[in-house]
Every structure is written in C-alpha cells, then in structure tokens.
C-alpha cells in the first residue's frame, strides 16, 4: 500500500525544526521526571496509606493503555498534530491544578485519572512530530530526543534539592509549572500536517496491523518483556517512601534516581560494543537476571550496613534491568517485524507493559504495607516468569531476520 502524497506545504521544512523539537522534548520530561520519584512522597505526606497510594498510581496506568492509542489516532486525523499536542499539554496543566484542591482520596484519584488521559500521549505525539522530520527532511532523531533524557535527569536531581528545602508539598507546584513551560514550548511546535504513517501507539495502526503479529515468538517475547518490566512496579511506587523512612534526605533520593538514569544512558551508549553479537533472547535473560539480583539486594543494603553507597551500587543495575529490556525489545522488533508493522508492534508492547505494570503496582501497596522493603523479594518470581516466557519465545524464534 503506497503512502499518501505530501502537500506542497509539507515538503517545506519548518524553520529551526530541530531546535523547536529539542525544546519540546526538554520541557516534556521535566514533569515526568518529577512525578515518578516524588509523587508517592507527596501522597504519603497527605496521609494516604500504602494501599491507597497503590490504587492512585495503578488506576491511571490501566486507563492510559486504552486512551493513549485512541488519542494518538485522533491526532493523526486532525488537520495538524501540533494543535492536538498543544491542547493536550494545556489540558494537562489545567487538570494538574486539581492537586491544589483539598487532598481527599476521591479528589486525588479523580485528578490522577483525568490527568493521565491528557498527559500520557505527550511523548508518543512528540515522537510522531520528530519522526516526520526524520522521514521528510533527514533530521537526527537522537540529537533531538537526547534533551528529554537530560531534562528528566535534571528533574530528578533538582527536584530532590527543592523538596529538601520545601518538603513534599512542592511536588504539585513543580508539576504544574513544568507543564506550563511545556505549553510555552508546545506553542512553537512545528506544523507537520497529518502523518504519512500512523503515529507511535496509534489505535488505527494496532487495529490494522496487529493481527499479523499474533505468532508465538512475538507474543511470548512481548509478554516476557512486559512482565520483567512490571517487576519494577514496587521500585517505582515505594522506593522513595522507603528511602525517606530510613532517614535518607530528599536531595540524596533525587541523586539515587538520577544515578539510575545515568546508568541507563551509559548502557545505551555502550550496548553495541558489548552485546552486538549476543542474541536478543540472551540479552533479555541477562536483563531478567539483573532484575532478580536487584530485588534480592535492595532489602539487604541497609541491614548489612552498606549505606547510601550500597543503594547507588544497586541503582547501577538499572542499566541492566531497564535499559537492556528496552534495547532488547527494539532489537527484537527490528529483527523480526517488517517496517509497515512496526507501529503495531510498539503498540502491543506498550499495552502489555502498561497492563502488567498497573497490575503489579496495585499489588505493591498491600505488599509494602505488610512487608516493607522485603516486598522487593516478591518481585523475584515475577521477573522469573518473564524470563520463562522469553525462553519459550526463543524456542519459536524465526531462523532469519526480516527483510524490509
């Protein structure tokens, strides 16, 4: 099936395209880099117990695996995706102001559900705009996207120092202001018109192309990836709360989160030099082993007297348990999925990751409530299940990489 032709306007490269997209990525990830490590601390400071925190974190995850593909498909049909992106960023900023209301369980849960609808599509829609520039004008995606990683890392570090000075009550303020800055950058988004190929995570792409991906290898592999990823739910939901409970300050918490991101980026930089000749199944097994070692180590660091240095050491495993999973998934898709089905493959992987992460996050609240840091050990069998699925996938792996 041939791609639709570009209009004369779409053939003209918007001025300063790479700079404008770099600003979008840089502002996009500040709010996310604040929300992941510090939002649970704000919830705890507001008096919510572990099970309530788990529901507030997990319910939006269940919702977004449905709404995000629908909204990216809607953006593809709009006259210009940039207009939809601006509307969603503005909507996110307005909804995030709901956290300034009295922090009752019902209000915070409702705001979180509404916020995830408008907030989660930001990244795939920014990717869609950037990838259109890559396809039409030969822009360098990595050069633009790297500023998102830089700003995420900065949000981890700076957010920790802000919280050390002000306390967790600053979290909603930081998110609101960051979304406001993202809105200013969004107003400068390059106009690219409709995409010639469906946007990442588009429901349209998944509907049309997904059935052809339902083979044993792809399904076992993406299920395994989703479950290994979900074993990190306890970490994302409760490690900041745990660190604070043993007297680690907010600024150090921020540095610990940032160190995980630094190790992840290092793996991206050096993966090909170290693992270029390693099969994708073995890459995933190594990632699963890294996850298991991480979940064994976390509850032992403090009792063994290893202190904050021990947690920095464990956080280094982020390069294995997270980065290698992300790289392994993309490597598998690149080797076995044809280009016209790549969007659907990404969408299916997104659904599995999101669904299993939400389910384990929901279970993590009661685990933390009853076991505290020892709840990390409950993540070990989850990672093992993911590795078993990867093993089943390897038994039905295609003999030759896909062409075209």
TrEMBL record:
InterPro entries: HcaT-like (IPR026032), MFS_assoc_dom (IPR024989), MFS_trans_sf (IPR036259). It comes from the Bacteria. Keywords: Cell inner membrane, Cell membrane, Membrane, Transmembrane, Transmembrane helix, Transport. It is found in: Cell inner membrane. Residues 20-372 form the Major facilitator superfamily associated domain. Gene3D superfamilies: MFS general substrate transporter like domains. The chain crosses the membrane at residues 21-41, 53-75, 107-126, 170-189, 217-239, 251-271, 283-302, 308-329, 350-368, 374-393. It is a multi-pass membrane protein. NCBIfam families: mfs. This is MFS transporter.
